[in-house]
């Protein structure tokens, strides 16, 4: 059945789909977010759960004039909380090429004398310094994985802030960062601290190798 694009269930499924697309296609040079829902439909799959059909417009966080259309399907597994929703998507048109920005960032981090450490990105005024923007984007992209793994029909997660990030020294070609982020769960209005270990390489994309929800006081 058709749903109004502004319907809360369509909105939640669209936020999950956008987070998943960002995780699959984002990088330190590109973060994607939901701009609008153009169409939405929902039907129940017997014995599994509800399936949403969505037509979305996604925008680049760095360049809001850069948008792409995306169709997505989200299938929630009711009754089994341990299975992440199934998400399929197709992007129409081309995403902006970020190879140059990604490679510059990669070289800069690889050449650091000491491992990078930072906190509170953005700061309390919403400001992100240019050299920390790729670090924020990498967290934004990786948080899409956490959202995908933990979303249900009754949740809507949004990345809020990096509380702390520390680079981990590696002997191979990957970059590794240990993040403590804050996620805003829009339905309950909870702010949730989440720890995640993120690997990235320009050729291989983003991997979240470990993540765990933290107790409230972890963000203090």
From TrEMBL:
GO terms for biological process: detection of temperature stimulus involved in sensory perception of pain; inflammatory response. Coiled coil: none annotated. Keywords: Acetylation, Cytoplasm, Heparin-binding, Inflammatory response, Protease inhibitor, Repeat. GO terms for molecular function: heparin binding; metalloendopeptidase inhibitor activity. It is found in: Cytoplasm. Residues 1-97, 117-220 form the Cystatin LXN-type domain. InterPro entries: CYSTATIN_LXN, Cystatin_sf, Latexin. One of its GO terms (cellular component) is extracellular space. Hardly reversible, non-competitive, and potent inhibitor of CPA1, CPA2 and CPA4. May play a role in inflammation. Belongs to the protease inhibitor I47 (latexin) family. This is Latexin. It comes from Aquila chrysaetos chrysaetos. The lineage of its organism: Eukaryota, Metazoa, Chordata, Craniata, Vertebrata. The gene is LXN.
């Amino acid at each position: 059945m058709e749903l109004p694009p502004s319907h809360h269930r369509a909105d939640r499924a669209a936020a999950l789909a956008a987070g998943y697309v960002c995780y699959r296609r984002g990088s330190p040079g590109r973060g994607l977010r939901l701009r609008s829902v153009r169409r939405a439909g929902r039907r129940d799959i017997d014995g599994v759960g509800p399936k949403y059909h969505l037509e979305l417009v996604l925008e680049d966080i760095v360049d809001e004039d850069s948008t792409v259309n995306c169709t997505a399907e989200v299938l929630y597994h009711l009754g089994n909380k341990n299975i992440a929703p199934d998400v399929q998507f197709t992007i129409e048109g081309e995403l902006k090429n970020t190879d140059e920005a990604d490679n510059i960032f990669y070289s800069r981090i690889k050449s650091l004398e000491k491992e990078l450490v930072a906190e509170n990105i953005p700061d309390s005024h919403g400001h992100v310094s240019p050299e920390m923007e790729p670090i924020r984007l990498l967290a934004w992209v990786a948080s899409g994985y956490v959202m995908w793994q933990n979303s249900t029909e009754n949740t809507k997660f949004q990345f809020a802030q990096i509380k702390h990030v520390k680079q981990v020294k590696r002997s191979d070609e990957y970059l590794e960062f240990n993040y403590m982020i804050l996620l805003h769960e829009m339905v309950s209005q909870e702010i949730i601290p989440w720890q995640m270990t993120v690997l990235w390489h320009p050729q291989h994309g983003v991997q979240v190798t470990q993540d765990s929800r933290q107790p409230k006081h972890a963000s203090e």
